[in-house]
Fold this protein.
Amino acid sequence: MLSYLISFLDFHVSFHHLHFLKCGILNSNQYNCLKGYHMADKLTKEHRSWNMSRIKGKDTSIEVLVRKALFRDGFRFRKNVKQLPGKPDIVLSKYKTVIFVHGCFWHGHTCKEAHIPKSNSEFWLNKITRNVDNDKKHTEQLTSLGWHVITVWECQIEKHFDETIASIENELRDQLNK
């Protein structure tokens, strides 16, 4: 099992090993062996820092795409409502629905795009794990307040935009009919 995971990580460095630990596939000794197992970063620390500092927290390109499509199709919303847990990206009060548009990297999606940087990987693993935990907490809080929560992933939007928007809109219409 451990040799399979190491060969897997050779080709696809990601935080899946933490998921394996949480699911019981790995024990803590195997996890500790793997958590430092990453190839060297091709960028300097300064260049990586510069890259990461340019990533926005709101009004990202994928959020804008989703909002424009919803607006074009007649859905009206507010964005980044601070009074709600997690400050949802899109809030559709009429539908009692919030939409989180998650970047695969930042929110720990299990797709190929969500990999841990090779430099300072322990920091990023902890950061992303905290984000995932916060996402779960905010979803639970919103649900307990009576909100319907939709999470849309960056990879869904990039690979299947029209289908993703249609799915969101169908879910919103279903929510209105409840």
User: Anything to note?
Assistant: The two ends are 47 Å apart (CA to CA). Residues 6 and 90 are 40 Å apart (CA to CA). Residues 56-178 form a domain with the Endonuclease; Chain A fold (CATH 3.40.960.10).
